[in-house]
Amino acid sequence: MAQVTVTLDANLAIDAMMLSGTKSPQDAVELILRDYLARGRRTETRTGDTADGHRVTSDRPAVQEG
């Protein structure tokens, strides 16, 4: 897998480490990004995406009376 180097503010790196419970800034950022991406996938699974627009249409069948 390719690796990318990102420069972060020291306070931001420390906050990320505290939130993720890791001792390495690299591990902290990786865990937070993986969680963020997984959360986005779960949301798309529950709500659908723009390709699911055919499910919600304004063409509703007429209500039968009588």
Structural class by SSE content: mainly alpha
Write the H/E string, N to C. Answer: HH
Number of domains: 1
- Sequence stretches where pLDDT stays below 50 over 5 or more residues: none
Count, helices: 2
Estimate percent helicity. 40-55%
Give an account of the 3D structure.
By secondary structure, the chain is mainly alpha-helical. It has one domain (1-47). Helix content is 52%, strand content 0%. The chain has helices spanning 10-20, 25-47. The radius of gyration is 22 Å and the shape is elongated. The termini are far apart.
List the topology elements.
Blueprint: H1 10-20, H2 25-47
Helix pairs in contact: 1-2
Summarize the structure.
This protein is mainly α and 66 residues long.
Structure characteristics:
mainly alpha; 2 helices; 66 residues
